DNA sequence: CCATCTTTGTGCACGCGTTCACAAAGGCAT
DNA sequence: ATGCCTTTGTGAACGCGTGCACAAAGATGG
């Protein structure tokens, strides 16, 4: 999911539902692909399939933007690309900074999807002095001391946090104080920000845990209707192997001792 | 967001709403932190704050798991950690494979949050023969040819796709054919999978675009209330013809020129 | 110009998720 | 025991999001 703005003001941005906004990038990508193949028009049905959604939902989504289709024909691809881009604010230039140039930060810096949609990496920032000056993705890493000046000089309003969890809140505070009003947070922490600042969170570990939940359910269902404990003790064709390492001893490096049930 | 299972079967897993499942990892993290500080009990109010949610929501979420609290006191931290871990299936061992060891794949391999919660990286797989054998995060990269045998030998049921978009569907098909039933997809593509396979998507570019949308709104609001409509006022300017590249405005140091609104 | 066919745009109903608000339940002091 | 105080657990109301199904709109062919 990686969901969640903080403090949802129930604003329902000018009438465009949040759920619709979240899908617009999806449509845009599908449309861009069509555009590159010089497809002139597309029906809601086709586009919906390409974007992985239901056609009724797509039409309703578009209806919030206006009546951009032609009945009996479909939607003009180029026109729609422009309208959605404009609605998402991608017709303007968005300088972003990435703070925390570890493995993830470097990956983000190299990620092509950023530049391709109006986002420009204005600077890479890291707290490690040894990193300073080293080129990553063609940009020299700047030291944290310069954070504030970089933000103001470049008019940055979007920041990406890819630091360890411990440093995230502090970095966040500095970003916000310097004028950043939108933050994409990869650190596994809840950030607290003042009113008016948007935070979106991407948490890899959470996504995996959600998958694990469903995976466990699938495994449990196959064998017995419901018995919870003693999960997939038997059967279990391929996947879970032996499963059942229950609440054993230590875990990996990062360690996280499984609690034993108390009283 | 990074949302979306495919094909929502409206299953409502044994009565636990999807939305609740998505929050359980959040609670678990907050609880683990409390546990490490040896806090014995916690109230719904405190825990909710730590997890960044509303206390009523938290209580309702927990009510789906059972009555694990004590009125007048709160919840036993250790006990709750155990219950949630069990519910999420984290008391068992989940071997995962990561396919596509580029910048992102390497970052994922090094990410501590995986190992810490019952997930074990069973193998790193890449299509580039030059990568084969090279150690990343302490594991030798294996070649794609070995994909099927790795899956079956290790009983892997969860796969992470971090390949370029072009290769994603093909990799996905092979994973599924080999027995993987849960996929975490970082490639910017819509994956099609057979019934019974869960896909979760994490798309960095989409998250940024959503932020940009809200950012644009904030900037627009400050200056003028609402005018919008002007654009396609008159009939459909067939394709890109009438499309004026309105936005043109550069951004100042801090500022943000609102898209020009022509008549 | 009319008939037919395609596809959009949307009114409506339904279900999920969120929040409020309160009764029930347990601890604790007296 | 008894009464007070705290906090849970949940019934109920509400709002958002989704999907159905159809009328309106436009294209197309005769």
Lay out the secondary structure.
The structure is a homodimer of 263-residue chains.
Chain A: H1 18-36, E1 41-42, H2 44-51, H3 55-65, E2 69-70, E3 74-76, H4 77-88, E4 94-99, H5 103-110, H6 112-115, E5 119-126, E6 135-136, E7 139-143, H7 147-154, E8 158-161, H8 165-178, E9 182-185, E10 198-201, H9 204-223
Parallel strand pairs in A: 4-5, 4-8, 5-7, 8-9, 9-10
Antiparallel strand pairs in A: 1-3, 2-3, 6-7
Helix pairs in contact in A: 1-2, 1-4, 2-3, 7-8
The first copy, chain A, binds a DNA duplex (30 and 30 nucleotides) through α1, α3 and β2.
Would you mind describing this structure in some detail?
The structure is a homodimer of 263-residue chains. Chain A is globular, with a radius of gyration of 23 Å. Chain A has helices spanning 18-36, 44-51, 55-65, 77-88, 103-110, 112-115, 147-154, 165-178, 204-223, and strands at residues 41-42, 69-70, 74-76, 94-99, 119-126, 135-136, 139-143, 158-161, 182-185, 198-201. Chain A is α/β, with parallel strands linked by helices and 263 residues long. Mean pLDDT of chain A is 83; it is low at 1-13 and 225-263. A seven-stranded mixed beta sheet of chain A has the order 6-7-5-4-8-9-10. Chain A has a three-stranded antiparallel beta sheet with strand order 1-3-2. The interface between A and B is large, with 114 and 110 residues. The structure holds a DNA duplex (30 and 30 nucleotides).
């Amino acid at each position: 999911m990686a969901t969640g703005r903080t403090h949802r003001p129930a604003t329902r941005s000018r009438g465009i539902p949040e759920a619709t906004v979240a899908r617009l990038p999806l449509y845009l990508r599908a449309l861009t692909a069509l555009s590159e193949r010089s497809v002139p028009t597309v029906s809601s049905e086709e586009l919906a399939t390409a974007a992985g959604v239901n056609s009724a939902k797509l039409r309703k989504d578009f209806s919030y933007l206006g009546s951009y289709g032609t009945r009996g024909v479909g939607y003009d691809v180029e026109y729609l690309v422009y309208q959605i881009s404009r609605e998402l604010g991608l017709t303007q230039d968005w300088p972003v900074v990435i703070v925390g140039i570890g493995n993830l930060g470097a990956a983000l810096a190299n990620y092509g999807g950023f530049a391709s949609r109006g986002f420009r990496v204005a600077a890479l920032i890291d707290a490690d002095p040894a990193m300073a000056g080293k080129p990553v993705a063609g940009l020299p890493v700047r030291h944290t001391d310069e954070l504030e000046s970089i933000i103001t000089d470049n008019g940055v309003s979007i920041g990406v946090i890819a630091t360890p969890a411990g440093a995230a809140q502090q970095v966040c505070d500095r970003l916000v104080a310097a004028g950043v009003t939108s933050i994409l947070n990869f650190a596994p922490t809840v950030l607290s920000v003042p009113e008016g600042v948007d935070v979106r969170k991407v948490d890899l570990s959470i996504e995996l845990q959600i998958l694990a939940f469903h995976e466990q359910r699938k495994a449990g269902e196959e064998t017995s209707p419901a018995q919870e404990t003693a999960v997939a003790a038997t059967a279990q064709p391929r996947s879970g192997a032996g499963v059942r390492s229950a609440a054993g001893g230590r875990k990996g490096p990062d360690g996280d001792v499984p609690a034993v049930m108390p009283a």
